[in-house]
Structures are given as C-alpha cells and as structure tokens.
Design a protein that fits this description.
mainly beta; seven-stranded mixed sheet
Length: 207
Amino acid sequence: MVGCLDAAPDYLSVPLAEAANAPVGLIPDPTRPPAGSLLLRGLPFELGPEPGRCLVHLAADGGAREAELTVGLRAQHMVFAHRLLSSRIREGDPPGRPVARITFTYEDGDQLVHTIRERFEVAQIPTAWGQLPFLALPDTADELPSDRWRGPYGRIGERQTEAFQGWPRWFYLWAWRNPRPEARIESLLAESLGPGYVIGSHRRRPR
C-alpha cells in the first residue's frame, strides 16, 4: 500500500490496481491480511481490488522486475505498507542489502530515487527478535499490559516494562518524506533488486 497528501486533511490511498500482480495468498498464514480495507496504526489503507490480484510482488525470480503506479498528486509524505518475503541475515548477510529501487517522477520530469534496504526501510515477516527495521514501524501499535498490577509471577518482568512493543502482523510501514512537496508527483516506478518484496498498499498524506 502507499499513501499521500493533497488538499484533503486526511491520508489518501494510491490505487494499486494497475500494477497489482499477485494474490493475497502470496502472504502465508497466519500473517495473511484480508483483501480490501485495512486500518494500520490508525491509518486507512487499501489492498488491490481483487483477492487474486491485490499485491505488487517484485523479485528477480518469481515476481515482476518492475511495477509503475500513477500518482498525479502532491504530497508531503508517502507511507508504504510493504514486506520482505525472505532474508539471509541469519546466514551472515549484512544489514542494508538492497531490496528494491523506487523512482519518483515529478510533473516537471525531475526524478528522485530511493533504495529500499533490508533492516532499514523493510524486513522479513515473521521477524526474528532484534531484527526490526531501523526506519520503519510494525503495522500494530505498542500497547499497555492488561495485567500491569497483578498476574502470573513468570510475567513480572514484562509487567515492569509497562508496555508491550508492537510487532508486524502483515506489513511494515515506511514513510517517505517528499523533499519537493509543492511539486506534483506524477508516478513512481518500483524495480526489483533481487529478493522477494511485496507492496501491499500505499497512502499519500496531503500537502
């Protein structure tokens, strides 16, 4: 998913229909989202229109090499709901492995390129302990324990933290800050740089 911002006060979705190429079943249970509308950390997102074609899947093998989306809007930020399908971190791969390249094209033809990197903008789901990305947030919020003042003795350490960290359920949310919010973004091109990568939706935050 991706989202942006224009004259409207709320976040607006950018439709994935023109680039969606994969079914919701590409995401394994139990981390498979329902097709249609999702509310992630209080922000509304939209998957593609059909369960059989609602995700953008990029990969050197088994997915599309690139996908282009029409935007046609001004935005201060674009929020991507995305995830990595595999990882080699535990086999010794260093953090920062390039996953995808996103090229934003403005109305005047100027372009800006951002590289999506493992452990920075995105990570694999399920995610091992200590492997959360540095620049993205899980799609569920932190929460307070329901048994802060009482409960099993074995959970006394958890209660002392007074908060439980949110953990990714379906996607990671990464917010791209637009350095040119006054210029209309005509389109974005996402290109695979190797590993399986999924964009579930994105939203734009109005200017």
